[in-house]
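One thing: can you check what follows?
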Amino acid sequence: MITPNRLQKGDTVAIVSTARKISKEELNPALQLLESWGLKAILGKTIGAEENQFAGSDDLRAADFQKMLDDQKIKAIWCARGGYGTVRIIDKLDFSAFKKNPKWIVGYSDVTVLHSHIHNFGIETLHAQMCLEIENKTAETGDSIRKVLFGEEYSINFEGSGPATSAGAQVIKGTLIGGNLSVLYSLIGSASEMKTDGKILFIEDLDEILYHIDRMMMNLKRSGYLKNLKALIIGGMTEMKDNKVYFGKTAEEIIVGLVKEYNYPVISGFPAGHINDNRALIFGREVELNVQSSIINIQFSSSKNRKSAI
């Protein structure tokens, strides 16, 4: 996998919205954070733009992102917010210049479209908090983004919680991939779908009915996406809903139950997703997952930063 170049103080980060509308005022905390890191920010035309729920039309959002992809002075693109809309522009984008000069693409949730699509080019991306509401997240949330962008050593230590099938001490190595479950599910069969065999899959989701979680996981299972994983990591399953007739299981219990026949560890309670502590994850990076009972460590391997054509 190709690692985008590390940032240096004085570099420029572009902020655009590929999905829902957002005002410049809502970005002030993120702009202040970038400034504190010694970075400059440039706002795309989608910031403040509006077409119903979107940050401007599909053509505007595509053109805005394309401009930042092609501009070699831009060293990273930080998505302003999620919602829905990235999939509407993905086929309008030309990644030719990006493949020759990769840069960090930062975001999560709806930005899973970009993570999955770009992973197939062999380029790493950064699953991390959007600009919106970063001031309401833990200090570790923002600092984890900074560490990755500046190429510092990075690992995550946490205590797993909830149901899990992993037992005893284990060390697993593999490439980390994934993102929002609903988005990954929606990409199956498209040019943006992600190959999962032999990889460590991370999933998270927000505001879903529990039987929808079961239905999506059943689809991934029957399609073969869950069979040959090295490990499965469950992040935030936030604000899940149920029907009047209860499904009878939590989202985590549904997921663990559907993969219990497979011989790989399942970790729940991971600090990433639509939760207060949303740690950055380097998708496409080789990681070492060290499981010691309920204490988990994920170490991201050092990778020589380079910019090379594919």
Summary: The domain at 12-149 is CATH 3.40.50.10740 (Rossmann fold). The chain has two domains: 12-149, 155-300.
